[in-house]
Design brief:
Helix content is 2%, strand content 44%. It is mainly β and 300 residues long. It has one domain: Neuraminidase (6 Propeller). The strands form 5 sheets. A 6-stranded mixed beta sheet has the order 1-16-12-10-9-8, with no helix packed on it. It has a 5-stranded mixed beta sheet with strand order 2-17-15-14-13, with no helix packed on it. It is globular, with a radius of gyration of 18 Å. The protein starts with 6 loop residues before the first strand and ends with a strand.
Length: 300
């Protein structure tokens, strides 16, 4: 779990610049409008900043709070019913902002990736991604405080040139196991890459991979089959199709389409289920508004 001060410089691929017009994008007819599946019934989940749909049960969703919470993740049903919490031993939560699920070190094992990448004031040079095999969902117990989880890896990284970026989007490419981070605030947003295998012993310099012509990216996901990419802003969700054998940059260089999205009070989470039957969104809570799990079903 400990990392030394060694910095690993990965090979730098060709940098892409997507400069298409994001205004007046057509809205895809692939998906229906939202279904409200149910409100969260655990008030402890008050700043849900990332979600990932379980690979062990497609009706279960992992989520977490962002800054200020403990080193724990929550398991909920897709109707918002709380199932239990898991504490990640050896991990911290300075500002967790997104999560992803996908392959990792061991074949045929699905891993959760939790991104400590928030940095509103640009003060933290080293960011972290926590990686762990998807916990045993049969251990979930809503009557206990949490279940402890071991075998948590910490992947430390820095951005190139000493910059300190704020980001809320983490994605994993199931074809390559590379991790992608999209920054939040600037225009255009920047895509960074952590190539597989990600080191837990050394601090990696993230690859500056490309730019996308919008701002305020708050979440993203790559489908389990690798053929669709979702990126969410505060008010819109964009979808890129990806052809067999293409890189992520190949897909990002084509103009996306919009997909249906009704803005939430502070929506910062989006995820595909493994079967690609649609996509889920979830918001942080604000005031007396209880977050609701929404599902946008793919049309038959």
């Amino acid at each position: 779990m400990n990392c030394d001060s060694t910095v690993v410089e990965p090979d730098v691929p060709e940098f892409f610049i997507a400069d298409y017009d994001m205004n007046n994008l057509p809205v895809s007819n692939l998906f229906e409008d939202y279904q409200a599946l149910g409100p969260l019934n655990n008030p402890a989940i008050d700043e849900a900043s990332g979600i990932a749909v379980s690979r062990k049960d497609p009706d279960l969703i992992w989520t977490h709070n962002d800054s200020g919470d403990m080193n724990r993740i929550f398991l909920i049903q897709n109707n918002g019913i709380y199932r239990g919490a898991f504490r990640l031993l050896g991990a911290g939560n300075r500002d967790w902002e997104d999560m992803a699920i996908g392959p990792g070190l061991t074949e045929n094992v699905n891993y959760l990736y939790i991104a400590e990448i928030g940095d509103n004031l640009g003060r933290y040079p080293i960011k972290y991604i926590y990686r762990l095999p998807e916990p045993d969902i049969s251990l979930a117990d809503s009557t206990v405080q949490w279940v402890n989880v071991e075998n948590v890896d910490r992947i430390p990284f820095v951005y190139p040139d000493g910059i300190m970026m704020d980001a809320e989007t983490l994605m994993i490419d199931p074809w390559t196991k590379d991790l992608y981070i999209i920054t939040k605030r600037e225009y255009p947003v920047t895509v960074y890459k952590l190539p597989y295998p990600q080191s837990i012993a050394d601090t990696t310099v993230a690859v500056k991979y490309g730019t996308l012509p919008f701002t305020w990216a708050t979440a993203g996901d790559i489908s389990a089959d690798g053929k669709e990419i979702l990126v969410k802003t505060l008010e819109k969700v964009f979808l890129w199709a990806r052809k067999e054998g293409e890189t992520i940059s190949d897909a990002f260089m084509r103009q996306p389409v919009r997909v249906p999205y009704t803005p939430e009070i502070q929506g910062e989470a989006i995820a595909f289920p493994e079967n690609g039957s649609g996509y889920y969104t979830l918001s942080e809570s604000r005031g007396r508004v209880t977050p609701v799990v929404y599902f946008y079903k793919r049309k038959e």
